[in-house]
User: Fold these one by one.
Assistant:
Number 1:
Amino acid sequence: MGWVGKSLRRKEDERLIRGNGLFTDDEQIEGMLHLFILRSPYGHARIRSVDTSAAEAVPGVACILTGADIKEQCTPFMQLGPDPCGKIVDLPLAVDKVVFQGEPVAAVAASSAAIAMDAGQLIEVDYDMLDAVVDAEEALNDEVIVHEGAGTNRVWQGVFEYGNVDKAFADAAHVVKINRLHFHRFSSAPLETNGCVAEWTRQGDIDFLCNNSFPGFAKQLLSPGLRVPIEKLRMRSYDIGGSFGVKIWNYVYMALAALASRKTGGRKVKWSETRTEHLLASGHGNERTFLDTEVALDRDGVITGIRSRHIDDCGAYTRYEPLGCVIWSQVLPGVYGVRNIRIDFTQVLTNKCPVVPNRGYSRMQHLWFMERIIDICAHEVGIPADEMRLKNYVREFPYETPNGCVYDSGDYPAMLAMAKELIGWDEWQRKKAQARKDGRWLGIGIGTTLDSGTNNFGQAQIMNQYLPFSGNSEVCSIRLDFDGSVIVTLGTGPSGQGHETAASQVVADELNIDPSMVQVRPGFDSAWNTFSGHSGTYASQFAVTGLSAVHGACQKLKKQMLQLASFILEASDDDLEFGVGSEGPQLNVKGTDKKINYWYLSNLANNNNAVLDETLADVTLNVRHVYRPPFKVPDTGRKFGNLTLTYAAQLHIAVIEVDKETCHAKILAYAAVDDCGNVINPQIAEGQVQGATGHGLGAALMETFNYDEAGNLLTSTFSDYCPITSMNMPDIQYGNIETPSPFSYNGAKGMGEGGGAPLHTVSAALQDALHSAGVIVTDSHHSPPEVFRRIRSPNRATAVSVETRR
Amino acid sequence: MSQRVGITVTVNGTQYDRDVEPRLLLVQFIREELRLTGTHIGCDTTYCGACTVLLNGVPVKSCTVLAVQADGGEILTVEGLEKDGKLHPLQVAFSEHHGLQCGYCTPGMLMSAYYLLESNKDPTREDIRKGIQGNLCRCTGYSNIFTAIDDAAVKMRKEA
């Protein structure tokens, strides 16, 4: 016993450190075709004609697909949102018009990737350029319409109002007004790009080896889109080279590879996205603008009310959106006790890459907003940043937020204390005071983020009341194979999170064996019949949904093993114990040498069953368990209900100095404290924190998707996008506390999406460094040119105002 | 593009003679001709380092070398690190210190680290940072990779 909670070395590593992983692009089959996708060079343009004749003549070309073909063969992909979302025509190739740079226009399948690309470049597309709209606020004017069929760019609008907001403002001692805050566009950009190998057989079966990270959902979109029965569609993956949510909607491209396979009589077609294609058109994180924010505070600096208007920019297609219009409300008040909140939330289409649920999806944007509020209020009202947080933290758990979410557990003051200790708070305060005297820009910032995990899909009904989605689930199957080995199958389709290892720790504890005796099958395969509509790796839930499924499957298996063993050994269940003997894993009668090993047990169930009696008819030693969290459908009218099961938290502190000449924001010290409840594998959990911190720091200081007015992406290669490297990553002082969740069987909280914390923290540290220079930090991106601009045009006089009444 | 050029390369100790298109990239040659798919492609602009291999003892990003340029050369890829069933200390250290998550950057990262430790037996943390600055990792935040390389260096010094 006791494997859970240990830093067991990962099982996945055995193949990955040898270069023996299997990523989609590694699949190589004789005679396979390669797909090249011709993409729009324009952000917004009418397609007048597509001439493929020159390309067709290239030797080695097997087929060419255009929008005209696709239109006849596909049903537009389902959009989750209510009208006008349903009027958006979303096909794998553009038909009459392109609406973002990089949108697919035609595809070529050929005997080699090089020939496909050569031929693709001979396709002549005649475009009429149209004005593009790239700014969310401008897009709301509907002067340029992204999808004419929808008739408007405004795809969703809703008011989230709780408590008595007007009274909070009437009674306020201070009202802080912040004109405009902006959360920039970036993506976690996994190192492996999207890809698949598709085969549409003459029997009408479709097989995908792919790297989709939410296969339970993708299957439900691909089936109607390709007009095939869902059973005919097999999705599998082996190793996935990172996803961070970005690989949730690569189904759009998978469809194209499948159509090319069908058109070539069932030949296998491989598609591997290039890095530029990935940055241009694989999915960006949600960009959000926060307008006319007002914050009511009492005399002591406790926030009593917030009202604001938020505009989310979802790019050119809605797809998974407008789910992000609701997801943020899982963390409506952030980590703070404010009860009176009114947020008017709108989402709008623009001529930019569609958004995708990127690590920290939608909550990160909102938590950054909440952290900017608390931080700006602290600086403007004159309360030290740490005290301001301590005055406002939620302290009693479970805590029901104004919109009915239940924060399971936490201790934010303890996390703050630990982070202060790790970074050497008092010493840095002294250094900061000295730096001020020396005229240097040194700041210390605090950022607290919530990683709400295991979402209740019922919240989708707040966005679209007719959606038949709610709750959540995950699946695990366990069987004893003929040789007695323990085979575990997961529905999760991980992308680097070590699920094979963590699951084997849980099984080892349940069966009282060594994790090396547990085989967890790598990857995902719908043919294994171990998945539900929610299966996938997203929304910080494996430790809860995935492992609860594993735990539940173990209980079912153990029950059957006990039945069988007690029959053979003529002992009662209570007298049997699980363990390992000289012949491997076994059950034995306590205090005796009577035992039965797993091979013997399995053989009875599978090969030698005439010795069993009818009471054992249901014993198969091959069980499947579906875990369902205890959710209810939210009250969609009030936008009220529990939207997530667990709330992991991260508290970061950064010390940053801005170089006065280069405007480079240099991190001098950084601490990260994590609370994900009971930790399953400390090394993996810390790895998630380190990695998420890397993403957040990269996003805060370097990474951004910049578009020009015509909708050209200016950062479409890694050289321009500037992902964080080993040279930019500071050393992290890591700590953790464990406040067990009362809502999961193991006390764990889902985690892995703490990527938001560095964005909040860096903004806060820069606020501290630059407040005296008249700068209010109103944007989440802080590359040197951005910092330079802010210092050159101090905005304090226009960005913020404080009204003190009593 | 039908003209092909004969090349001879030695990869992980085995000599290969192949006729290749002049435009074939070394990484494509390694992955598609030799079926050594441990070497990965993560970008197309010599930025990410997932395709790093050693060519004549020096790390190169094999997406930016033509296969014909490697003619007559000796190449070491991740598949060549394990010797006689024994993992290289770097491979062990990456696993022990959780220096990999998805594993996609790992082969290239290992090759850069291998070169670093070949040329500097006792690197500082700053040397390690510089040694892998051309290799992106999107999962780990690098910290555990630094620790793994440092630990491998310590163990290799002890063994030497």
Note: Chain A touches chain B through 60 residues (CB under 8 Å).
Number 2:
Amino acid sequence: MITLTINDKEVSLDRPMSVLEAARQAGIKIPTLCYHEALKPYGGCRLCVVEVERMPKLQTACTLTAADGMVVRTESEMIAKVRRGILEFLLINHPLDCPYCDKAGECELQDLVNKYGATAGRYREEKRKVPESHKDHILTRNMERCIVCTRCVRMCNDVQGASAIAMMGRGGHTRMEPFSSASFNCEYCGNCLSVCPVGAILSRLYIHSFRPWQVDTEVETVCSYCGVGCSMVVQVRDDLIKRVVPRMGLGLNRGLLCSRGRFGYEYIHSQDRLKTPLVRRNGKLEQATWSEALRHVAERLTGIKKADGGSAIAGIASARCTNEENYVFQKFMRMACGSNNIDSLSRAGFAAAQKYLEELLGQGITANMIEGLKNSEVILVAGGDPGTVNPVLGLAIREAFRRGAKVAVVGHARGLERFTSIRLTPPLFREEEFLEELLAGVSRVRGLRGEKLDVDRGIRAISDAYPGISGLEGFDELKHALLDSPSTSIVLGSGLVQHSRGHRAIFAVAGLTYLLEARLYLLAERPNEQGLIDMGCVPEMLPGGRPLNNHDYTRKFEEAWGGPIPEEDGMTLMEIMEGAKEGRVRALYIMGDNPLVNLPGGPLIEEALKALDFLVVQDMFLTETGRMADVVLPAVGWSEKSGTYTNIERRIQLLRKAVGNSSGMEDWKIINDVSGMMGYPMAYEDAESIMDEIARVSPLYRDLTYREIGKGNSLWPYHGEPLRGEIHELPAAVNGTGSYTANFYLAPEKVLFHSGTTSRHSQALMRICPEPVLRIGPAAADTLGVREGDRVKVSTSSGSGEFPLSIDRTISDNRVLLSNNFEGSGVLRLMSYRLDPVTRAPGIEGCEATITRL
Amino acid sequence: MFNDTVVKEIDDIKSRYPDRKSALLPSLYVAQREFGWLSSEAMESVARALNVPESVVRGTATFYAMFRHAPAGRHVIQLCTNVSCMILGAEQLVDFLKSKYGLTPGGTTEDGRFSLVIMECIGACGTAPAMLVDTDFHDNLSEKRIEEILEKYK
Ligand code: SF4
Ligand code: SF4
Ligand code: SF4
Ligand code: FES
Ligand code: FES
């Protein structure tokens, strides 16, 4: 225990820390400029000087480690004089343009000068002139105001890891440059902006549009873009979101955000939002009132149910929607429509993997804290780029790397380019064999674990089929690293799941997780992929992951829901589409998704949707799928509603309403009303009343309340009872593989700046990344004789498109990447699919493409 | 981009340091020698060769005075004008370079043969005035000697 005296107050510390932190802990404020809690101490500004007994000179509190018996003074005549002097020096160059600067009111320099002076400067020389730069899409830079505290540089280098900012020049002419420009890899996280103490870095999204003190309300909520679930604060004025800011120390992201979370909020106020319900009359979608539209939906669904039974109706839920909405949705499908045909687009990735993993290893196997990545010694990343899919999780991996962890990347992960220790490039689309080989190699040394006999059996079959050695570069290094590692994490992305042999990759990952007792993380592109499954939006499971075929479980739900749950097995996503095409599914109800764009097999999906008798789409925008619907119902989004999301750690977090000016309705409310008209009244009052019901009926959420969730620590397994795994299917015999000999293969690219429908309506994100770009490796570019920026035509058996080309040094094989985030030009519609027999995910591997220069 | 010999040279530099950032200054010298000055391309080449972020390369390159950020002549004259050299006539030598070669401090001759940089003390006070031409050291300068010396640099 260290005890020191600060301003006559005795302060005891339970861990080593700086004098500055010790003072803060004791509630004593020491002024700072270069110190920031998210960054390493720097000792540059000297503002935090304090007097320490028996030390001859003033000391910087931020860099001085508190020692036992120290006697510290943080304010004195001399200290005040020094601080005044420092501030006077800073103001030699800092312009006095506070009335015009957006930072005024929350500027650390302004506050300090206010407190310590100097009220007048003594320097007569000219101030340094640097024109304000508006060249960037998002960040305005005013280097006249920069006080060279280097917080932005340290943030960008040491925390974000983008290394996009450097101190340029020297002395009085030092400036911070260049933030953003393609070659410097700015990731537009805006984290530099949140640490700049002055108005040197500002956001163009709200420049000159309000003053910090004019904010009406501030709402703490979570991000709606990905499965990390970062905490953030939405600041509102006149019912408009003015900006989204992080709060240091808040939530699992501790004040860090990515570009989507921070700058992607504009879609809420987009002019393109649906304003009224639309109903198809004489072949055209026309405006309708809510009561007309809802009645129409109820009548048509009732009619189809009467004529062909509930199984002619299917529902697609959404990982963009809250737990409450998804719960109500599946209850509606099961109880009002009488159908278990309920799935979501998460089936094409997260849900497929998650469900199979849990069958193998038990419920909760992926419930690991993101923080845990930072403490791992070895991190194996396969099937996706954490840096773009789940950026803030990617930062944890970068941090682990900097700390000395070995990061092994299988395939391609641009966001980890400078953070990879072992790069493995197994033959394209045969990554599952590589993972099986690795599993065989590990099990040879480790042996089986004997805890889960079925899994052991599967591992034995694999190690019988493989030698467990491989000539692949990095294989041995990785194998030994894994075997020696005291703490291993495995990160699995959907790239390996969207594969007709995806279950084999998933099994291999499960096997490695099991043998190495590793922490497993599943990347999740949408905010509520986990919650969606937990709420029962899968055909075979009820809320809490309780299997439908078990009467002990169903009985309880039937009692609570007041009626029988349909017994017929439900269809999974692609089966619903195929069923629609064949006429077995006549009505489809889609909540918050756009399958026409977000699913492969474009022509088939289009045919399926056309063949339907009745299609309802609930969304915030008129999407491509919405245009084909019979009824379109405007929903509200993220900051307009309350509810909960379950993130990839299975932490349940509260989404809080911040604005409410749109004409949409909450998804649960729409369904609630339709259900009532169909003779199955639900009568929920608000999202909280839905959670109350969930907490009552589902054994996993027992006793959960918003009060508790609001504290941010609702961690797995809550107060509930997780289920142990029950294996249905082990991987098929390990011999089948494909052969891939074409020149180019098309694959989807996840773009850091986009997610899909919502990001497309966020102007800032569109400015950063306005159009799809085809990415190819340098070797492929040489063969084709193409250069950066050339326009090329890509053709597959399903169609073609023209795109500008970009050469990506991190692609070392013959894959060609194209994003799926732009209207009318998605990559998925150029791809056909084959279902994985176990996970039922659409496999999109091996999409041969030809590329021609235009 | 660097040619193979230079890549080898930089690999050799890398092998002398425990981490890549430490190899930055010597590599920047190599780049300056190869490109004549630190153009964007030169700094990018260093970043690639060392796998150090370009921002770090730029930050470092702009901090030190010995790196050039504009094209220079084939030969760079660094003439000292600090106290000892000044007393012994360095300022006249500056004038001489101007009248004879049209060379002003910071400037380059029209034919691209010489650039002139005014230096702080180069430690040759005892034999002042002194200058460096590229990396060659010359002292006891006079107008005549300068003329003779520069003859050797084409
Ligand atoms: S926005 Fe992020 S990546 Fe870009 S300069 Fe700022 S901290 Fe660096
Ligand atoms: S731009 Fe802001 S954060 Fe960066 S050094 Fe200048 S004052 Fe500090
Ligand atoms: S990492 Fe995910 S949750 Fe966090 S800000 Fe980015 S998109 Fe939002
Ligand atoms: S805060 Fe301690 S020196 Fe800047
Ligand atoms: S003053 Fe010129 S060399 Fe010292």
Note: Residues 350-522 of chain A form a domain with the Dimethylsulfoxide Reductase; domain 2 fold (CATH 3.40.228.10).
